Amino acid sequence: MIKIIGILLILISSTVIGFMYGETMKNRVKELNEIQRGVLILKNEINFMHSLLPDALMRVSEKCTGSVSKIFKDASHILMTNEEIDVHASFKKSVDLNKSILNLKKEDISIFLDLSKSLGELDVEGHNDMFNLVSDNLDKAIVGAENNLDKNIKMYRYLGFSFGAMIAIILI
């Protein structure tokens, strides 16, 4: 009886792990879309509202959701409290603070941080070019993440179950 319960626990836990990994892939796509949305809102705040960067970042955080909102909010707070003077350093610190709740890969984060390297250092035309470049790079990352999601989500779910079934068969 204990052996059956143990086998069922192994099977259920490995299946749950497979589903959880599939969810992180889904969440990555959602976060990339939310970053793209935040970048677009930030572009509008800078170009049309002529907001100061900390205020613009705070407004972006209010319009975004989830962990992406927290990144913008923390970056705004870091700039407002003068913890960091450099925009890039404040974004990097914000990303590092929220790394545990993000589902993004290093490449995704580097696209986002590339934008912060030029914020506040260029004129409006230069900012527009940088926003367009980041938007294009995010488009490519989103397409790649969606293709990866379509190909692999079922595989990871079935792999979790299969791995648990394999262990269960070995234990029997």
Low-confidence stretches: none
Return the string of H and E elements. HHHHHH
Number of strands: 0
| Radius of gyration, whole Å | 21 Å
Counting structural domains, the number is 1
Helical/strand content category:
mainly alpha
Summarize the structure.
Pfam families: Spore_III_AB (PF09548). This protein has about 170 residues and is mainly α.
What does this structure look like?
With 172 residues, the protein is mainly alpha-helical. It has one domain. The protein has helices spanning 2-49, 53-63, 66-80, 87-97, 106-118, 124-171. Helix 2 packs antiparallel against helix 3 (66-80) and helix 5 packs antiparallel against helix 6 (124-171). The longest helix is centred in the first third of the chain and has 48 residues, at 2-49. The protein starts with a helix and ends with a helix.
Highlighted features:
single chain, 172 residues
Write the layout of secondary structure elements.
Blueprint: H1 2-49, H2 53-63, H3 66-80, H4 87-97, H5 106-118, H6 124-171
Helix pairs in contact: 1-2, 1-3, 1-6, 2-3, 3-4, 4-5, 5-6
Protein name: Stage III sporulation protein AB
Organism: Clostridium punense
Pfam families: Spore_III_AB (PF09548)
